[in-house]
Amino acid sequence: MSDFLRIKNLRASIEGNQILKGIDLEVKPGEVHAIMGPNGSGKSTLSSVLAGREEYEAEADEVTFLGKALLELDPEERSREGLFLAFQYPVEIPGVSNINFLKAAINAKRQHQGLEDISAKDFMAMVKEKQALVELKQSLANRSVNEGFSGGEKKRNEIFQMAMLEPKFGILDETDSGLDIDALKIVANGVNKLKTGDNAFLVITHYQRLLNYIVPDFVHVLYNGRIVKSGDKSLALELEERGYDWIINETETA
Amino acid sequence: MSKQEFLKQFDQLTALFPVQGSARSVIHNGLDFPTTRDEYWKYTRVTPLVSTEYAQNEAKIDSIDAMRIPDLEGHYIVFVNGVFAEDLSDADLPKGMQITPMQKADGLRKSHMLEHLDQHIDSKHHAFHAFNTSYFQDGAFITVEKGVEVEKPVVILNISAGAKQANNLRNLILVGENAKADFITQYEGVDNEGALSNVVTEMVIAQGGNASLYLLQDEGANTTHINATQVAQDRNSVSKVVTITRSGKLVRNNLNFTVNGEGCESNMYGIYFGSGKQHIDNHTYVDHLVPHCNSNELYKGVMADRSTGVFNGKIMVHRDAQQTNAFQSNQNILLSDTATINTKPELEIYADDVKCSHGCTIGQLDEEAMFYLQSRGLGKEAATKLLVQAFAGEVTEQIDIEPLRNFVDDFIHQKFEDLNA
Question: N or C: chain A end with fewer CB closer than 10 Å?
Answer without folding.
Answer: C
